[in-house]
Each structure stands twice: as C-alpha cells, then as structure tokens.
Amino acid sequence: MNDKFLKPYSPQDTEANIYTRWQESGFFNPDKLPTRHQKPFTIVMPPPNANGNLHVGHALAIALEDIMIRYKRMQGFKTLWVPGADHAGFETQIVYEKKLEKEGRSRFKMDPQDLYKEILAFTLENKGNMEAQVRALGASCDWSREKFTLDPDVVAETHRTFKKMYDDGLVYRGSRIVNWCSKHATSLSDVETESKEKVDPFYYFKYGPFTISTARPETKFGDKYVVMHPDDKRYAEYKHGQQLTAEWINGPITATIIKDEAIDMEFGTGVMTITPWHDAVDFGIAERHKLDREQVIDMRGKLLPIAGEFAGLKIAEARPKIVEKLKAKGLLVKVDEKYVHNVPVCYKCETAIEPQILPQWFVKMQPLAEKAIKSVEAGEVVFQPDNYRKIFLYWMNNTLDWNISRQIVWGIPIPAKICDACGFAAPDLEGTLTTCPTCKSATALRADTDTFDTWFSSGQWPLLSLGYNSSKDGSARGDCKSFYPTDIMETGSDLIFKWIPRMVIFGLYLTGKAPFHTVYLHGLVNDAQGKKMSKSKGNVVNPTDLIVKYGTDALRIGLIVGNTPGTNLALSEDKIRGYKNFANKLWNISRFVLESTSGAGGTTAFAYDPTFTAWSEADKALVAERDTLVAEITKEMDENKFYLVAEKLYHYIWHRFADIILEDSKAILGSAAPNAVPTVAPSADKTSRAQFLLHTHRTILKAMHPFIPFVTEEIWSLLPKTAGEQTLLMVEKWPTA
RNA sequence: GCGCCCUUAGCUCAGUUGGUAGAGCAGCUCAUUUACACUGAGAAGGUCGGGGGUUCGAGUCCCUCAGGGCGCACCA
Fold it and tell me: Is the CB of A387 under 7 A from strand B?
C-alpha cells in the first residue's frame, strides 16, 4: 500500500498535479481518445465573460457540464467539450467604463480606436485569469479547440451571416423606435431592458375640447394628433382625420383626430395625444396611420429647439417648469400625485430608457421564430425542466424585430456602408464600395461605425465555436462535420430568453438543424438562506476561496446534490465541508480495502481478479445490491438526474459500504492480511469477500469519478493495476451491473 | 393585468407512471489509543400551507383559497 494513504487526503497537494496528468494524456481532445471512443458526444461551453472572476454560478455550470462529459467519455463516447471566452460586448464595455470613471476619464472623450485597444488588453488579461479558474474546477474540455468570441474566423463568419441574412431579406436597415440608454449612449434590444416600478405625478391637461393625461409632459411639445377608440361613444361626434385648433404649451396647435383600437377606453379620459418619436405605442399608431413624427429629446436626454424656451434643459429640470407654464395658461385640470406605473430601464445602470427613432439594423424575427417553434413542437429540442418549453414558445410567439446595432466600440464591427445623402445602406464585407450605388455620391458614403449586439454572434456560437464556414459550402466545415448538431446545451435559466432562442434560430437558419437536442437549465446559486448573492448584501461566495478551503471535489458535489434543474440552490459552507469529509472518507475506505487485501511486507494476498464469480452466499446478496444500484444510477445519469446519483452513491459508499460491509469484513478477513506467508490456502469466504471489496471499490471509484474527479483519479493512480485496466480513471469504462 | 414556479423534519431540499413519508446539515444520548475525530452506534423529529373533489387508496391528479419567488406587459 502506498504511504500516501497514511496521511489524510489533501486536495491542495493533489488537484493541480492530477489536472496536469489529464491534460498531458491528451484525452480532453476527442481525436486522441482510445479507439473504443467512436460516437461523438458534444457540449459547447457557454463562454464565460472575460471581464472578471468566475462566480459560483459558473462553478455549478462547469461541474454539471464536466459530469456530463466525463460520464459519456467513460461510456465510450468520443466526447468533445469546447471551451470559450466571451468578449461580452456591452457588458465588458460597461465594466471598463466604470474603471475609466474611477480614473476620472470618460469614453466620450476618447478616440474610439484607443478605447478599443485598452478594452482588448483588459479583456485578454482577464481571459487568462478566467481560464485558470476553469481549469481549477477540473473541466475536462479540449483547450486545443478553445474559441474567443473575437477570433478572426468568428468575426468573418458573423459578417457572412449578416450578408446572407441581408440577401435573404431577413436583415434590413430601418428607422424604428429603439430603446435608448442615455447614460451608455447606445440602443438596446428588448431583452436588455427591465421594467421598474415608479411613482410619478400624473397630469391631466386641457387639449382643445378634450382632457388628456400624461406622466411625461416634457415630451408633449409636438403633439398634434389626438387619438381615441373608434367605438368610444363619448367621442362619436369627432371623425377620423377631422382637424381642430388647441391652445398648447408654446401657442396654438392644429390637431388631427385619429381613431385607433390601441386606445384603452377605460384608462384616463380615453383620449390621448401621441409622441411617436419617444413612445413605442405612439410609434405603432403613427406607423399604422402614416403620421408625422418629430424628435423632442436629444440623445443625451436634453430638450431640442422644438421645446422653445425649454430647449437645452434636462428632462428632470424641464418637467416642473412645463407643468407650471401649462397651469399658468389655465390648461392644468388636475394632478394625481401618486401614479404607480412601470417604466423600462437599462438592465445595467437602471437609467430610464428613452425611446428614440433611430436608423439601425434589424433582424426580421417572425419567419425565423416560426421555424424555431416548429422544431421545438416537433420535439427536436427538449427542455429540462420541461416547463421552460412553454416559456420558450411564448417568447417565440411574441417576437418583435430585433435591433442588432450598438453604438459602442467593443464588439464585432458591422460591415456595412451607409450613404448620408440618400439613405442607401448595405453590407460591404470586402470594403470595396467607395461611391454610393444609388446617388453616386462619394463623400456621403461612410462605413457604419456601430458594432453588433453580442447576441448576434453568440447566437451562432455552437456553429462558430466548431469552425463553421459558410463560404466553403459543401466542403469540409471544420468540427461541425462530426460534432454538429451538439448534444446538450447546459446554461443558466436566465438565458432562456437572451440566448437559447437565438441559437435555435441561427442553427435552423444556417444549417436546417437545431444546434442541440437538449437544453439543460440550471438555476441561481443563492446563499445558505436562499437569498440572492449580491455585492451590496456582502453574501457573495467566491468559488476560488471554497476550493482553497475544501477542494474542488467538495465544491463540485456540494453544488450538485440537492440541485434540480431550473430551481435555485441554497449553498451553505457546512454542506461543502461535509463533502470534504466525504472525500477523505473515500480515501480511508481505499486505505482499508488495500490494507485488508494485501499481505504483510508488501506481498499481495488478494489481487483484483476481474473474472472472479465464486461468490459466497453472503456476498451474492451484496453483489446483487451493488448491481441494482449501478443499474439505477446509470439510468438516472442518462436522464441527467445527477442530484439523485450523487446522493445515492454518497449514501451507499458511506452508510452501506463503509459502515456495514467494511465492518463485517473485518471479522471475515481476520485482523489484517489473511496470511503473509500462506501455509494454508485462504478460505473461500475470505477470497470471496476480498474480491467483493476489490470489485466494489473499483465500481465506486468509477461511478464517483464524474462528480469528484480529483480524489478518485488520485486513488486510482495508487491502485495496483490488473491487465486491461487504464492508467487514467477518466478513460476507464463506466461500471455495468 | 397575464403567465410560470414554489409551500414536505429546526434549516436546505429529494420523493420517477397515485400504493404505509426520505436524505444532508444542525440538534440530542452514548462510544472512542479506530481504515477514518475529516469517526462510530442509537434515538428523536413531519395530520406533506388551508379547504374541497376524483379514487379502494392522494405528498403525487383536479378545483379553490392563502403565503412566497420569478418572468412577461405598448393603459398614455
């Protein structure tokens, strides 16, 4: 028996060495696996943001994906787990802007190219840091295939997709209302906004013969359309298109009556004026009736000249002054001081979103969403847990065209030319357009300075990370040839909107195949009381700290047990400490098994015999019990019920194998070795029990390996091997009953 | 407003097609030069949120109420 067993198991002295051994074996790379590994099994890692440290949610994701991969690898699949790093466009730019702010700098005063270079350096530094943390978690991913979301081939392929979609009529440039964050000075997609409850005064004003109401008087300068429901009997005397004069903020205005069903007759007075430039509903009404639209607020949140004496003021300052003026003119009817409503805010800075009409690139969603719905309804993609299927379908049935232009530098540039003279806009991948094809102007034609929404490229990630290349249609397409479609997409449940639908859409659009057959969604990792971790509450748990204290194995299994897909997990340090004890228990079990089956002076009394079947009566029952367990957990592994498997194995190993079977074995096997220098043959009962311990010990190590890879691999390395056994446990066969 | 999820032992959670309630942690009582104190043995602890229904039988299926969480929403 190896002397290492004389000391307690030390994860700190073991894990890094084991990881090196795995990496040097080459087995993370599917092409280097032994020949029994033929059928591909693929997971693409959701690339962690390369802008900071991993949090404990990442640790859960890595643990889950690694369990899936290690299990399948042991079963003989040709496993590929593609690691990645995300430049995370908008998110990283915000992290960097905060850093600039602390240094008293601002991106608005910087040359965009310098800013890009600085963020790139920052990201590359964090990328290395992030990768080291992924390794520390034991991830058996193929680093030789690692992809960064700004790698040149990723950028080139994203550009080609943009062009293809434009050619197919699925991408267009349009002046539509978008979500504008005036702090970050960029537009945002609908999933990048949140709604927040606000209490504001709600004003009622006289507008010609009507009383209208609003929470935003500062947008009302240009309002010249009065809208009411066509069925509203109160206003039946007014006809659609009829004109009338109304006294308004800066003098009389000619107003036009519009009848539209978007109006809620129950709300307010049932009459409103519209501001199409700064309100999505109003924009919709204006679109339907082809009405004029005028900008009132500029891109930094200040009033434009249309506001007359109020021009140049910020919204917050202007609002009370405008109300004051209307009151003085006798147009203020009443004010509800406490009007509760939800306003959209930027999901990062909580600045109120100012809708603006901007020329941007949009993806036409409906035809793409229809394909995704069909695919999911046909069962080509299944969700774990199943209720996310409903959420997915609801989302796909209610799509709006997707704005993919961002006014930030950190991202993939949009390869397009825009003509400021005639409005021409089209992709120009090679940069060959120098004069506008429509109006022939050379001076008005410029390159688009915007970048893509990160999700435009991330949505293609299963393809991009596998080297998909649409320009070589029909020929070799990198790893996509053998590994696409992938098998499982494991990610956080919050990405059910932001990411999953886009991957399904792009996969179907570009290849006709959904990018994965299973979506496994994990929940949030909360603190021990089930409260969300946040910096302000001070309850954030850093995975690296836990690894240092308890070892990666303890952290991994602590994150898995009691964690069902889709539901949040309460993580307590006690739990992880308990699993550190478990790793040590396994260590001592190994020591006992080796000691009690080996002879004195290093001779082996009982060598592991894989073909042994002459079980004693007592051991037959134990073999049957173990085989039942193996059959159960194999089924549960196939169903991705890792929480059940981990718990069952834990219970069997500790409370059956160690507490009962090992204790009983002491009496059967005698004090230590049966006979160092055998004078009589060991009894049949002794042989049977010794073989049972040796067999079951190996079964336990193999079955636990996906969950606690380090300690099981370390123990495996200390076992005397029999012919046919692999040097590394990671490529041993998964046990069979 | 619409939708989804949750409510089971002190705490955190399991409980597969309906068939006599489970685990981990904490707590309690003992034991202890043991493979292992990173330990063992034992006991205790729940009318499964309330009410109603279906059924021979409901933690599980249906209805309803209450509490908690989350998501979506263009009532100006």
Answer: yes
Decide if A603 contacts A609 (C-beta within 8 A).
no
* A40-44 vs A332-346, strand pairing mode: unpaired
- Distance B12 C1' – A588 CA (angstroms): 28
Secondary structure, 3-state, A659-709: HHHHHHHHHHHCCCCCCCCCCCCCCHHHHHHHHHHHHHHHHHHHHHCCCCH
Q: Beta A416-419 vs A251-259: how paired, if at all?
A: unpaired
The structure tokens 């087995």 sit at: A27
Checking each nucleotide's C1' against the CA of A195, the nearest proves to be: B73
DSSP of A417-478 = EEETTT--EEE-TT----S-TTT--SSSEEE---EE-HHHHHTTHHHHTTT--GGGTTS--T
pTM listed for this prediction: 0.93
Residue from A359, A355, A363 nearest A446 by CA: A359
Residues in chain A: 737
Rounded, the Å distance between the CA of A57 and C1' of B19 is 40
How far apart are alpha carbons A477 and A380 in whole angstroms?
23
A456 token code pair: 């435009």
CA(A577)–C1'(B12) in Å?
A: 15
Taking the CA of residue A728 as centre, how many other CA atoms within 13 Å lie in the half-sphere pointing to its CB? 20
CA distances from A297 to A97, A183, A311, A323 (A): 24, 14, 9, 17
On the 0-12 / 13-18 / 19+ scale of CB atoms within 10 A, A307 is: buried
What ipTM describes this predicted complex?
0.92
Helix (H) or strand (E) holding A293: none
Q: Å from A284 (CA) to B74 (C1')?
A: 8
Confidence of residue A674 (pLDDT cuts 50, 70, 90): very low
Q: What is the mean pLDDT of chain A?
A: 90
Which nucleotide is closest to A5, CA to C1'? Answer: B35
Q: Comparing C-alpha atoms, which of A352, A331, A326, A355 is closest to residue A341?
A: A352
Closest of A388, A362, A430, A434 to residue A170, by C-alpha: A362
Cis peptide before A485 (omega within 30 of 0): yes
Mean pLDDT of A100-109: 92
Is the model's pLDDT at A95 over the cut of 70?
A: yes
Q: Which nucleotides of B are covered by protein (CB under 7 A)?
A: 3-6, 11-15, 23-26, 35-36, 38-41, 70-76
